[in-house]
């Protein structure tokens, strides 16, 4: 049955063993060299994760969008005044989107920000927000007051909404959940497995 | 109580043990088949299914290196499309009872069936060992890409291309594994699959009524 074992048989085994042994290296090199191609953004507008890296689809994500510069001459504390920076759940910066104009349809005019994503199994919105922003080693610090209605977020990444001045009476950090204004505060928000929560400055 | 069965095996040692076990199973099965099989297709299909299932389970520590693709391809070429579909489905189902069952099982069964059918379709053209090797290599990529479609149940179409790109080193493993298996298994499996029934079995119904006790 295996009487005719020839050179072809032996060479095939040698090549197979070589590929298996070298596989971790081959895979690593491949992942590194294709990173740019793979890190494409989700382009389907009716997707809750529209504009986010495609590997984050169906995961939990938090994004903070910063207002355009003329509204925020005093937002020097933020590190995210240009582009949109994406951090994964381990805190590694995976992508900077320099072409982020009108990235998310409900944030027209907001073209800089930061997103942290790739999380799962969070249920409490506030806990998710604190832990997700914490992976960036202090780049997105959250400032909040405890009120009777739960935590009130006044500062994100150094930008205190109460300090903003401009052609408006006042400003606050508004919360969006999967593309629509959240009915509840962050303290009462129940996360879904595909929740994208977004904070951005709103004015009155 | 000390749990004597619980100890960590080095992955390489574990793989070598698996390969040894697979070698023993294949060696004994081939010999048993030689001794007892009269060329009955059911016996041969059962034997091939066992080799496929045990081969896939025992080689599972190495991703994508397993003999199933080559077995269903050869079954398609030497026995026919229906036989390869049977083998593909049985092997996918039973090996996934150990490796993990899910929506991908149906995709794996379908992908292996497709490869078997392609083998049957091109059986006349795959007449040299070089063509067979080339086709076995291509089958690896075909199988992987077809099974990758199963991710569309959980993620959007946007994810498919990045997913396929990430999988290319795994496709390479499948291709090299298939080429090795076709070189090693083509002759012995062809010998078994091409065996004709030696018709010395008397399957005719007896004309005589059984005698009452």
Structural account:
The complex is a heterodimer of chains A (about 200) and B (about 210). Helix content of chain A is about 20%, strand content about 30%. Chain A is elongated. The termini of chain A are far apart. Chain A is built from 3 helices and 10 strands, in the order ααββββαββββββ. Chain A is an alpha+beta fold. Chain A folds into 2 domains: about 25 residues; about 160 residues, Ferric Hydroxamate Uptake Protein, Chain A, domain 1 (Beta Complex), CATH 2.170.130.30. With about 210 residues, chain B is mainly α. Chain B has one domain: Arp2/3 complex 21 kDa subunit ARPC3 (Orthogonal Bundle), CATH 1.10.1760. Helix content of chain B is about 70%, strand content about 0%. Chain B contains 8 helices and no strands. In chain B, α4 runs antiparallel to α5. Chain B is globular and about 70 Å long. Chains A and B meet through α1 of A and α7 and α8 of B.
């Amino acid at each position: 049955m295996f009487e005719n074992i020839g050179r072809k048989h032996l060479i095939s085994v040698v090549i197979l063993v070589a590929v298996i042994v070298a596989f971790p290296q081959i895979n690593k090199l491949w992942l590194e060299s294709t990173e740019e191609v793979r890190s494409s953004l989700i382009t389907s507008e009716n997707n809750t994760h529209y504009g986010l890296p495609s590997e984050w689809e169906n995961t939990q994500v938090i994004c903070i969008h910063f207002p355009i510069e003329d509204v925020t001459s005093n937002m020097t504390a933020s590190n995210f005044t240009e582009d949109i920076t994406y951090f994964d759940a381990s805190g590694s910066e995976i992508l900077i989107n320099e072409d982020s104009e009108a990235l998310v349809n409900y944030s027209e005019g907001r073209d800089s920000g930061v997103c942290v994503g790739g999380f799962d199994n969070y249920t409490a919105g506030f806990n998710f927000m604190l832990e997700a922003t914490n992976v960036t080693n202090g780049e997105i610090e959250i400032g909040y007051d405890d009120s009777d209605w739960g935590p009130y977020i006044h500062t994100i990444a150094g930008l205190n909404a109460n300090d903003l001045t401009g052609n408006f009476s006042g400003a606050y950090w508004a919360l969006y959940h999967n593309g629509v204004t959240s009915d509840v505060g962050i303290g009462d928000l129940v996360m879904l497995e595909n929740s994208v929560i977004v904070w951005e400055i709103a004015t009155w | 109580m000390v749990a004597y069965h619980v100890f960590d095996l080095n992955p390489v040692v574990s793989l070598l043990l698996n390969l040894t076990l697979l070698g023993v199973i294949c060696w004994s099965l081939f010999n048993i088949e030689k001794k007892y099989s009269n060329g009955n297709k059911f016996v041969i299909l059962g034997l091939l299914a066992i080799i496929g299932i045990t081969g896939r389970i025992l080689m599972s520590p190495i991703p994508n290196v397993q003999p199933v693709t080559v077995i269903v391809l050869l079954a398609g070429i030497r026995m026919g499309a229906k036989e390869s579909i049977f083998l593909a489905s049985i092997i996918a189902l039973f090996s996934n009872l150990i490796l993990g069952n899910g929506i991908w099982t149906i995709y794996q069964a379908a992908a292996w069936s497709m490869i078997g059918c392609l083998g049957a379709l091109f059986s006349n053209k795959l007449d040299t060992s070089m063509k067979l090797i080339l086709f076995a290599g291509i089958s690896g990529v075909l199988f992987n890409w077809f099974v990758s479609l199963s991710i569309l149940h959980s993620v959007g179409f946007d994810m498919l291309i990045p997913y396929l790109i990430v999988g290319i080193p795994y496709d390479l493993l499948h291709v090299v594994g298939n080429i090795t298996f076709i070189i090693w298994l083509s002759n012995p499996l062809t010998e078994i699959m091409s065996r004709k029934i030696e018709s010395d079995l008397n399957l005719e119904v007896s004309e005589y009524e059984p005698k009452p006790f």
